[in-house]
Design brief:
Low-confidence stretches: none
Radius of gyration: 13 Å
Mean pLDDT: 94
Oligomer: single chain
Structural class: alpha+beta
Distance between the termini: 42 Å
Order of helices and strands: EHHEEEE
Shape: globular
Strand content: 25-35%
């Protein structure tokens, strides 16, 4: 894939830092979530869904991020014309009981 076809990621580094500082996940989970975030460079639509009622808002859980009945969820805005992906949040979400 050429560099020209990659997407520009914005705000993910800040949200990753906030998630790590607040929830103190183990290093394996940090690596897994970071790798998933980096995969957004190539295809921000892979494995996520559009949130109805919000322009350009997409969200999904990070595969294999389940720990202690929580899964890591990320939401972001995709601006196709500018080829940018702007992070909205990275947080753990409890599974329904």
């Amino acid at each position: 894939m050429s560099e020209a076809s990659l997407w520009v990621l914005r705000g993910f580094d800040r949200h990753l830092d906030l998630w790590v500082a607040q929830f103190q996940p183990d290093q394996d989970l940090i690596n897994q979530v970071t790798a998933w975030v980096l995969s957004r460079f190539e295809d921000p639509f892979q494995g996520v869904r559009r949130e109805q009622g919000f322009d350009n808002l997409w969200w999904g859980h990070v595969p294999l991020s389940l720990r202690d009945e929580t899964v890591v969820v990320c939401s972001y805005f995709v601006y196709e014309r500018e080829r940018t992906v702007t992070c909205n949040s990275i947080v753990p979400l409890s599974l329904p009981t």
